[in-house]
Structures are given as C-alpha cells and as structure tokens.
C-alpha cells in the first residue's frame, strides 16, 4: 500500500523553503550594498592617498630649493671666513666669528631638512602600503561581489526549482499550495463544526428530542462527507 502524503507537512515545507529563500535575498541585498559602500570608501581613501602623494612631491621640491640655497650660503660663509683671515684685527676676528656662527646655523638647518626629508620618505612608504592595502581590499570586494552574484543566481535557480516542485505536487494536493492551505484550514473548521453538531445530536438523543436529532443528522453526515463525493 502506498503511504499517504502528509499534505500539511508538505505545505509547511514548501512555505518554509520560500521563507528561507526570501530571507536569503534580504541577506544578499544587504551584503551587496555593504560591498558597494566599501568600494566607494576605498575609492575615497585611494584618491586621498594619491592627493597626499602629489602634495608630498611639492614639499620635496620646496625642500630641495631650500637645501640648495643653504648649501650656497654655507659656501659663502666659508669664503667669508677665508677672507676674514686676511683682514686686520679686530675686524677680521669679528667677521670670522660671524662666518662661523652662520655656518653653525646653516648646519642645523641642513640637519632639520634631512630629518624632514626622512619623514617624507617614511610617509611615502606608508602611503604606498595604504595604496597596496586598498588595491588588495578592492580585489577582495570585487571577488565578494562576484560570489554574491553567483549566490543570487543559485537562489533564483532554487526559486525556479521550488516553483517546479509546487506545480508537480499540485495534483497531489488537489490545488496550488496556497489554495491547498486554505482548503486544509476549512477542513479543520469543518471538523470542529462536525464535532459540535455531533455533540448536540448526542445530547438531543439522550434528551429524547427525536426532532432535533433528525434535524441535525443530515448536517452531521454532510460535514463528515469527503469533498466532491456528494455523500
């Protein structure tokens, strides 16, 4: 004997599958939106990093000009010191002292410029690491979006398969799943009404009210008949 299909369980399984697929679409949509926002933010970071690189080049060009000027001033101070040696005292001594102080100031300025140049180099390397990270993150997000697209297509395939399954089981259910669900609910209500009428019929029989029992008996038989049999 073929085992009878549990229609209620089958309907519940189909509805659960559709709810799961609807939730999957919500999750996929949220993931796609997050990935797209992430790409936009990465583009902004990349643009900012490139802008910093341009300003860094401008600063290095300015530092080079200052460096060359200080080197010329240093050479001039050396020449001044040599010339001061040919001057008589006390003028020669004063000029030599001034030239020495100037060379000390220039040496300090050159050291500061070297330190700034080192910091700029470190900033450039850090910026390049940022850009490398941005490129890697963008590649990852692109791969994520591609995977989400594949998942979206799989979801659509599952929806199509679910629709085919619903059409296939419709003859077994006697209707499409939604109609079958409503018929199942009506069947439960009919059973409850039949139970109530049966109780009333029993009470009428016990009370000896044959007219009530005879009036309710056809209704009870109708509620107990299978749909479509007319019995």
Condensed summary:
This protein has 231 residues and is mainly α. It is built from four helices and no strands.
Structural summary, described in words:
- The protein is an all-alpha fold and 231 residues long.
- Helices cover 90% and strands 0% of the residues.
- The chain folds into two domains: 7-174, Helix Hairpins, CATH 1.10.287.950; 175-231.
- The chain has helices at residues 7-86, 91-173, 177-207, 210-224.
- Helix 3 (177-207) packs antiparallel against helix 4.
- The radius of gyration is 46 Å and the shape is rod-shaped.
- The relative contact order is 0.09.
Q: What is the CATH homologous superfamily assignment of the largest domain?
A: Methyl-accepting chemotaxis protein
CATH architectural designation of the largest domain: Orthogonal Bundle
Encode the helix/strand succession as letters.
Answer: HHHH
CATH-defined fold name of the largest domain: Helix Hairpins
In helices, the fraction of residues equals: over 70%
- Broad structural category: mainly alpha
Q: What is the CATH first-level class name of the largest domain?
A: Mainly Alpha
Please state the CA-atom Rg, rounded to the nearest Å: 46 Å
Work out the strand percent.
under 5%
Coarse shape = rod-shaped
């Amino acid at each position: 004997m073929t085992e009878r299909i549990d229609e209620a369980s089958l309907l519940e399984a189909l509805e659960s599958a559709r709810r799961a697929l609807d939730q999957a679409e919500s999750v996929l949509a949220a993931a796609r939106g997050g990935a797209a926002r992430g790409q936009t933010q990465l583009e902004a970071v990349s643009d900012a990093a490139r802008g910093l690189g341009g300003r860094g080049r401008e600063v290095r060009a300015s530092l080079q000009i200052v460096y060359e000027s200080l080197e010329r001033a240093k050479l001039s101070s050396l020449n001044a010191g040599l010339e001061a040696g040919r001057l008589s005292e006390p003028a020669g001594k004063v000029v030599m002292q001034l030239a020495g102080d100037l060379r000390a100031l220039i040496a300090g300025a050159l050291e500061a410029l070297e330190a700034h140049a080192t910091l700029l180099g470190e900033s450039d390397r850090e910026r390049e690491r940022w850009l490398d990270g941005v490129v890697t993150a963008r590649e990852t997000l692109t791969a994520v979006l591609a995977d989400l697209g594949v998942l979206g297509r799989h979801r659509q395939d599952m929806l199509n398969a679910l629709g085919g399954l619903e059409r296939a089981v419709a003859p077994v259910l006697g209707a499409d799943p939604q109609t079958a669900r409503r018929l199942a609910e009506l069947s439960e209500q009919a059973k409850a009404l039949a139970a109530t009428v049966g109780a009333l019929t029993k009470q009428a029989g016990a009370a000896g009210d044959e007219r009530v029992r005879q009036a309710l008996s056809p209704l009870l038989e109708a509620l107990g008949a299978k749909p479509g049999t007319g019995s």
